[in-house]
Amino acid sequence: MPEKRSRRGPITRNAVGPSAAEAFVIIAIVTILLTRLYLRLTGYPQIGGGDLHIAHALWGGALMMLALLTGWMALGLGARVLSVALGGVGFGLFLDEVGKFVTKDNDYFYGPAAEIMYVLVCLILVGARLIRVIRPLSAHECLASAAAIAADGVARGLADHRRAIALRLLEQARTGERLKPKSSTCAHWPSPRRTPPTGCTDCSGGRHG
Asked: pTM for the complete prediction?
């Protein structure tokens, strides 16, 4: 009798992916605040001459493109951190000019722009949280996430806290248990550089409470 294959979802989730999404949003928010502050202090200068004006949304698009290229062409945790940082700054610069995109007269000071930014940021955060909690990580997803961490180690070395996360994920995959949604929040991205205590029941190897 042929062996029955286990059913897998349409996507394979990364155990530490939601934390990267949250870092991306935080960087974008900080970028928007700093951009608005800079423009206010400098009198809203324009880059270009004559009728030419290079909007900072274009710089944001360029940074997001670099973030994608970095993620596609480089391996390792450092490349992923750089991708999140570049993407967050780029998205912040792009989102800061949302008022120009939704008004006929390209009004940067469009009143509801702040509400539009808030809604978009909330949608990203809620989406990342739903992906995390909609169902526990399967054994296949735990194994795939551990393999991704191992690949990072081959590329640039592996810190102790990352090794502890990978070992915990491997244990979950070996036992066939599903990683609880709240456990994935323990695999912060990036995590503090410390070795978790033994006997932990969460993904980072440390026992809470």
From this structure: 0.74
